[in-house]
Specification:
With 22 residues, the protein is an all-alpha fold. Helices cover 86% and strands 0% of the residues. The longest helix has 19 residues. The chain is rod-shaped, with a radius of gyration of 10 Å. 0% of the residues are buried. It is found in: Secreted. This is Brevinin-2LTa. Belongs to the frog skin active peptide (FSAP) family. Brevinin subfamily. Has antibacterial activity. Keywords: Amphibian defense peptide, Antibiotic, Antimicrobial, Immunity, Innate immunity, Secreted.
Amino acid sequence: GLWETIKNFGKTFTLNILDYTK
């Protein structure tokens, strides 16, 4: 559903930011 997509996007976005700031 849409909410799952939003949550997954948020998770990947956060992980990408954390990975980028290493």
